Amino acid sequence: MIEGFVALYIVMLAAFTGYEIIGRVPSILHTPLMSGSNFIHGIVLVGAMVALGEAQGFLGQLIGFIGVILAAGNAAGGYVVTERMLEMFKSSKEGK
Fold first, then answer.
1. Is the residue at 60 inside a domain?
2. In this predicted structure, what is the pLDDT of residue 68?
3. Residues near 82 by beta carbon (within 8 Å), at least 6 away in sequence
4. Closest to 86 in 3D by CA, of 40, 26, 30
5. Is the pLDDT of residue 3 over 80?
6. What residues make up the domain containing 35?
């Protein structure tokens, strides 16, 4: 089991690495990356549901429930944003 400062270190390292990687991506590639990241957000949602199922006590269940809600919102919002971005690339027709 990961505890204390080791868990904090892993989270900080992951956040820094993610920021550095995404910060170097050209704008034209953000839409394909967004579609791929939506898949990852779905995996995060499954992980949050597993954590909620394994939670013991009220505080653990509350944190797990909040994790599921946030992960579901993140995944759904990612698909909405991707759809809106893809709409920008479609050609507009005069007859609509």
1. yes
2. 93
3. 31, 34, 35, 38
4. 30
5. no
6. 28-89
CA 82 → CA 13, 26, 88, distances in Å? Answer: 27, 16, 10
Q: Provide the whole-model pTM.
A: 0.59
Q: 48: how many CB neighbours lie within 10 A of its CB?
A: 21
Q: Where on the phi/psi map is residue 57: left (φ > 0), alpha (ψ -120 to 50), or beta? A: left
Residue 8 lies in a domain: no
- pLDDT, tens digit, 9 for 90 and up, residues 42-56: 888 888 899 899 889
Residue 81 lies inside a defined structural domain of this protein: yes
H-only helix segments in 1-96 = 4-23, 30-54, 57-89
**Within-domain flag for 74:** yes
Is the confidence at residue 96, as pLDDT, over 60?
Answer: no
Number of domains in the chain: 1
Structure confidence at residue 94 (pLDDT)? 54
